[in-house]
Specification:
It is built from 25 helices and five strands. It has a three-stranded mixed sheet, sandwiched between helices. The chain has a two-stranded antiparallel ribbon with strand order 1-2. β4 and β5 form a beta hairpin.
Length: 587
């Protein structure tokens, strides 16, 4: 079994003739777009929009594999100067299209008879949703030259700060028991069954952050100030307002979800205190015990074990997903293990041009790593469902981005729970599921509140590391309540979470809570409907790139603005907590 992913289906290297040909073709397409946008016709608007979209399609087809190749190389080696140079060149090249794209969006926005033009042209019909949202968003577009300037300044601004955070966190080493370990490796020790290992790893991790906190602090402040400035220029409301527009999601949906989560947070605090008691102490759980394994679910799994487990559990649900998972393992789609220079965490990159995905993990052999693989391969399945879409219809918004991934987690965990007969095994499985659920409820909400506070600070000043740490403590106190021992909070969680570090993607936190609860509701429907649910599920995933979040949910007869939907999903997790408490009491 491979340890690293194979990128050769994209390119064999920067010297691959295919790479040079695609880059040359991209440069030509960019020049075509700029020439076309500089002389927009006031004649046949339908023909103009049609041609503009054709050129943008060509740019998308060429840019995506070039970007993915460079980006994937840098995530496993943040010191890969060749790939970093390629990324910078591509970013500079595409920034040259900013003025042209702004001109085209404005042109669409000023087209009064857009619906009639769509009705008359099958090509435009494929892009109906994109055109309608473009027209709606046109009010926030700035002058073409200003858009171009913002895009170019972002190369040495937001994008550079994002790269700095990634570089610092992937190259810093932690001093753990006389060893120098990558940050990702020492963070993996939080899952170790030995409490002394977990505590020492926590101490090493916190000390590690102190080495890089100043550089990351400047990255965070600069990014949030840049986003705040852009929102002011566009007169589009707050960064959260901008994020909701990008997410194609109504504020009423977010408010209904948060209302329900806040009501149920004490349920998860109860679980955390019960886990602390099982570990031998009263009161709130200590931070370094958040991921402590429980019950008999302390076995380690090889990559081969993970493959067999996932395929056997998903084949009864969706044979096409099981087939895709088998391909992912056999054809080297996955980069498994942590090492120096590799970014932490896990992600999946859908690559429509080769109809494959690439998955990064920091695999350590715990059952949670199998769940992580299920999560990321859910993203890959989502990518498979949308790969037939037109090139400009391949992006789904943040909230629905976590639907298939979290649904996969639910399938794995619920199947394992249904199969468990030994109470100790069931306790371990329940605990593993509740670990993850607590992260997407308590921790995700703390991240949402923290980012809200950072944006508020960005309006008036600069937040130094100590202030950021205090903001994080306050957010963790609100999210975890008395479920955690607040003396052991980790105030440096703002340093390692890459989700905060993007000028174009703010508040990448609440979508995880959305995904978890939305997936729970969908899974409940699957349990009722059986095989009849699968076609509906596939259609729903396919629609995520061409519908609003609310309209996607309606395909499953779900009203996201109804707080009771979220409460029903949370009741599923409340039942899991009650099961855990009963098993814990019997220990």
């Amino acid at each position: 079994m491979n340890k690293e992913w194979d990128l050769s289906p994209l390119y064999s290297g920067m010297d691959d003739p295919r790479y040079a040909a695609d880059l040359s073709a991209l440069e030509l397409a960019v020049a075509q777009l700029n020439e076309f946008a500089a002389a927009l016709s006031q004649g046949d608007r339908g023909a103009v929009i049609h041609r503009g979209l054709e050129i943008e399609e060509q740019i998308a087809r060429l840019a995506a594999p070039l970007f993915e190749y460079a980006s994937l190389r840098t995530t496993v080696n943040t010191s890969d100067t060749q790939a970093l140079d390629a990324q910078a060149r591509l970013q500079k090249l595409l920034s040259d299209t900013s003025a042209a794209e702004a001109a085209l969006r404005s042109y669409v926005g000023k087209t009064d008879n857009l619906e009639a033009l769509i009705a008359d042209d099958p090509f435009l019909q494929d892009y109906a949703y994109l055109l309608r949202t473009t027209k709606d968003d046109a009010r926030y577009i700035l002058d073409e030259k200003v858009e171009e300037a913002l895009a170019k300044m972002n190369l040495s601004g937001g994008s550079a700060w994002e790269n700095l955070q990634s570089y610092l966190t992937s190259t810093v080493t932690a001093d753990y028991r006389g060893q120098k370990l990558p940050l990702s490796a020492v963070r993996n020790l939080a899952y170790d069954p030995d409490p002394a290992v977990r505590k020492d790893a926590y101490d090493a991790e916190v000390a590690c952050y102190d080495k890089i906190k100043d550089g990351v602090c400047f990255a965070l402040n600069s990014l949030k100030q840049q986003v705040t400035t852009e929102c002011e220029l566009r007169k589009g409301g707050s960064p959260l307002d901008m994020t909701l527009r990008q997410s194609r999601m109504q504020r009423s949906t977010l408010e209904a979800m948060i209302t329900a989560i806040e009501e149920y947070l004490p349920v998860f605090w109860k679980y955390l205190r019960a886990k602390a008691k099982l570990l031998g102490y009263e009161g709130g759980l200590k931070w370094w015990d958040l991921f402590a394994p429980m019950g008999k679910n302390t076995a380690t799994y090889t990559v081969e074990d993970a493959k067999a487990y996932l395929i056997s559990h998903f084949r009864p649900f969706a044979p096409d997903m099981a087939d895709m998972m088998e391909r992912a393992f056999d054809e080297a789609w996955i980069d498994f293990y942590p090492h120096a220079g590799k970014v932490g965490g896990a992600f999946c990159a859908n690559i429509a041009s080769i109809r494959q995905s690439r998955v990064l993990t920091n695999y350590d052999g715990a059952f949670g790593d199998i769940v992580t693989l299920a999560h990321e391969l859910g993203h890959a399945y989502h990518g498979m469902m949308i790969e037939e879409h037109k090139p400009l219809n391949l992006d789904y918004s943040m909230p629905v981005a976590e639907t298939a991934s979290t649904f996969n987690e639910t399938v794995v965990m619920n199947a394992a729970l249904d199969e468990a007969t030994d109470p100790a095994v069931k306790l371990g499985l329940l605990e593993s599921q509740l670990q993850d659920t607590t992260q997407i409820m308590c921790d995700i909400m703390s991240r949402y509140w923290f980012e809200t506070a950072v944006f508020e600070k960005a309006k008036t000043g600069f937040a130094f590391p100590d202030e950021l740490c205090e903001m994080m403590r306050q957010a963790q106190r609100k999210g975890y309540g008395d479920g955690l021992d607040e003396e052991t909070f980790n105030p440096y969680m703002w340093v390692c979470k890459s989700h905060y570090y993007s000028s174009g993607l703010s508040f990448y936190n609440f979508p995880y809570a959305f995904g978890g609860l939305f997936a729970a509701g969908l899974y409940a429907q699957y349990r009722k409907e059986g095989e009849a649910f699968l076609p509906k599920y596939r259609a729903l995933l396919k629609a995520t790139t061409v519908c609003s979040v609310e309209d996607v949910a309606k395909m499953a007869d779900i009203d996201l603005g109804d707080v009771n939907f979220w409460r029903q999903s949370l009741e599923i997790f409340k039942d899991r907590v009650e099961q855990f408490l009963a098993l814990a009491a019997a220990q």
